[in-house]
Design goal:
It is built from 12 helices and 14 strands. The chain is an alpha+beta fold. It is elongated, with a radius of gyration of 50 Å.
């Protein structure tokens, strides 16, 4: 494999960053954060607002219904009176209408203490035969048919009156043989009855509505009481108590929320357990090299032979390098876990250029073991991915460094960046070696923290593949182990999503 062009370090091209912070900018301003709201106040508002809005509407509707109810009996009285008066109309020999003597009319049309009653009888051509001549006559569209009674509103002597009118004809074909009879009545009794109905309906509401508000208030207090009990129950828990909340003791409306809360608590408990195991494992892993370093230093202090002293110092140096490597791996793993939610730090990364830089940086380590390290030709289209450049560099570096460590002297390691033929808009990173390989039954376990395959003499912390997997999954991808085409060694295959063109 050629070393020249394969390991050249191309110039870095600047790529625009995803300005996620700008998109969330308004939310990052304290002045624009939504203010806290009370659920109790929210429910009370939406219950009382319609009530207070509908109350005036109910008053208007009640007044209209009361007016109709008050008009009905008095309208019927007017109809009866005008019909009785119409029956007193007679016609002479020339078919001219005549009205009965006035004492009889006075008995039919009586004035009450509250209202004034007017009447009018008109003959052919509008001649006033009896009654009040100034009463307003009906319009053409309000003129009653023969024998029919029509009611209308009018005004007389500056007062609003209700008028009932009918027409009596001896010959329907000759208007001169017809008489128009009208009776009008002021509205005092109607208004009094309407006011009585309205007051009878509305006055109780002035007592009922405040009582309803009080009952709504206390009903809401009782309704939100389970929330207060739940708050108190959670508040009484010990800081380390992540046990689920009993969903049987909460209302049905809160059950989905509590189930989601319990699921979050279970995931948090799992995360804390994993962190505690990680801390315990890390402490154990750090204790061993530090104890070895201390022992070597103590032996060196007692040694007087320069050759033996030099040999011990080399061992101290080797132990210090292993400790430094372990610390760097632990820091990298902590950085990956801390970056799980920091997706706003993602930028556009050319995976091929990044990989080529890492391969070039690891050439001295490969030469030290006489390993042929190289990278296949770059794809025609630059494989641009969205990600954290530091973490992606850590992932690729761990994969290539692992391949170098577990490949025997004189072997070869090849890195390939290529499009995924099976899935569109996906790129593959392959790190191939001709080492002793990884048994199929432990290929999943090698991604566990601090796990190392038995029988290998290579030094390592057991964190490299775990870091690579977490970085790949953080970027929406994954990693798997495959056999090489020749059956010797293995290849680590990472897949990531490409940015759209």
């Amino acid at each position: 494999m050629a070393w020249g062009t394969a390991l050249k370090n191309p110039k870095q091209q600047p790529f625009p960053t995803r300005n996620r912070t700008a998109a969330w900018g308004p939310w990052l301003n304290d002045d624009s954060l939504p203010s806290s709201r009370s659920l109790f106040s929210e429910i009370l508002h939406w219950m009382l607002a319609p009530l207070l809005l509908l109350w005036p509407i109910s008053i208007v509707v009640t007044y209209d219904v009361a007016s109709r109810a008050a008009n009905k009996p008095h309208d019927q009285e007017l109809v009866d009176n005008v019909s009785a008066l119409a029956r007193q109309v007679r016609f002479d020999a020339n078919s001219h209408p005549l009205i009965m003597p006035s004492p009889a009319v006075a008995m039919l049309v009586r004035s009450s203490n509250e209202d004034t009653v007017y009447y009018q009888v008109l003959g052919g051509g509008g001649a006033v035969l009896a009654g009040d001549g100034g009463m307003p006559g009906p319009d053409d569209n309000e003129y009653p048919d023969n024998g029919k009674v029509r009611l209308r509103d009018g005004e007389y002597h500056g007062e609003s009156i209700r008028i009932a009118a009918t027409q009596v004809c001896q010959d329907d074909t000759n208007s001169a043989t017809c008489a128009l009879i009208q009776i009008g009545e002021t509205r005092a009794k109607r208004s009094a009855l309407s006011a009585q109905i309205v007051s009878g309906v509305l006055l109780p509401q002035f007592a009922i509505v405040p009582l309803a508000l009080i009952f709504v208030w206390f009903g809401l207090l009782r309704g939100v009481a389970p929330l207060n009990h739940l708050r108190d129950a959670i508040g009484r828990r010990r800081p380390g108590d992540l046990s689920p909340v009993d969903v049987q003791t909460v209302p049905d409306e809160l059950r989905p929320l509590i189930l989601a809360f319990n699921d979050m608590m279970a995931r948090l408990d799992h995360t804390l357990d994993a962190q505690q195991r990680f801390i315990a494992d890390a402490a154990h892993q750090m204790r061993t090299p530090l104890a070895g370093l201390r022992m070597q230093v103590e032996l060196a202090l007692d040694e007087t032979d320069p050759q033996q002293l030099r040999l011990m110092l080399h061992k101290v140096l080797s132990g210090a390098e292993r400790s430094a490597h372990l610390i760097n791996q632990l820091l990298a793993l902590a950085r990956v876990e801390a970056s799980t939610e920091k997706l706003d730090e993602f930028v556009i990364v050319d995976l091929a250029s990044l990989t080529r830089e890492i391969v070039a940086d690891l050439v001295p380590a490969a030469r030290h073991k006489k390993i042929d390290l190289g990278m296949e030709a770059l794809p025609a289209r630059a494989p641009l991915v969205s990600g954290n450049a530091v973490l992606l560099r850590e992932m690729v570096s761990n994969l290539v460094d692992n391949a170098i460590k577990y490949t025997p002297v004189g072997g070869h390691v090849t890195v390939v960046v290529e499009p995924d033929d099976t899935v569109a808009d996906r790129v593959l990173l392959r790190v191939q070696d001709n080492g002793q390989g990884i048994p199929v039954d432990v290929r999943e376990r090698v991604f566990e923290r601090f796990y190392r395959v038995l029988g290998t003499n290579a030094e390592g912390s057991g964190l490299g593949l775990s870091i690579a997997r977490e970085v790949a999954e953080l970027h929406g991808g994954g990693i798997r182990i495959e056999d090489n085409a020749g059956g010797v060694g293995v290849q680590m295959v990472v897949w990531l999503s490409l940015l759209p063109e």
